[in-house]
Predict the 3D structure of the following.
Amino acid sequence: MYDNKIRQSNKVKMTGGNDTIIMEFTLLGLFHYPELQPLLFLAFLTIYILILMGNALVILVTVYDPVLHTPMYFFLRNLAFLEICYTSVTIPKMLANLLLEKKTISFSGCATQMYFFLFFGTAVCYLLAVISYDRYVAICNPLHYPVLMSRRLCLLLVSGCWVTGMSVSLGQTALIFSVPFCGSNVINHFFCDVPPLVKLLCPDSHVNEVTKVLMNILVIIIPFTLILASYICIVTAILRIPSLDGKRKAIHTCSSHLVSVSLFYGSAVFRYLRPNSGYTSGLDKLLSLLYTVAPALLNPVIYSLRNQRVKAALRKSIQRTLGVHV
């Protein structure tokens, strides 16, 4: 009954053949339980506000305090900004659909959402690889760190992340939306993600396999391989440190980044790299929600509350703002 009502509301124009001209898509969302939607709206609105506040706080503190004007915090500042953009592509639309009876998105709106989701998501993947390289230099070449991680190199690395994200997202979005859709325009997801959209393409196209291969290689495998290579070198260097305190300090230097990478890649790898036989729409939605929301929500805690320098800078900023001295 629910699916029939959705299909009757779809705006689809039939052509002479089997292809259809899609005017808008219908998003099924996370769950099909209308009675839960007010509660879900409040929960995700709270999460979104926390994401904005937490990451904005990281940006402000690392900009405000000169002590934190180092390559590591420059990268963390960019990561926080990307996390705000990344979640803002999907969560506001999801919140709107939780309140609206007609859960639709226009054809151009869907293409735009996919483009920016891939753009910021790919940039985050490569920025995590850049941070792993920064940790590698800090641990393996500490004496040459200021020279090797110059301001010019940091700007080039971050620019490379943005350009790569832009290129990958443009290519993927153009590839998918240049192929005709066949039949239903109901997306069994809460945003315009690649896998559920590819399932709506005409079956005689090869875009499905091409898109999956490109996503796996460009967005997941290459940056993850770079991260893995950096940490192999880091582990090798840590094993050579003679003192236990030195080893503990080196591990603490990269522990926050390891937790962040595990959060993001743990769900993303399982989401995109598993075989089609393991596909279940409910699990895929939860995995998408996990790698979209969890890192952005927890990264400010992982990188800030566990970092003495950030906590000291935050305390100093609060004291200056309130005009008190502790």
About this structure: The two ends are 64 Å apart (CA to CA). Residues 86 and 120 are 5 Å apart (CA to CA). The beta strands are 12-14, 19-22, 24-27, 104-106, 181-182, 186-187.
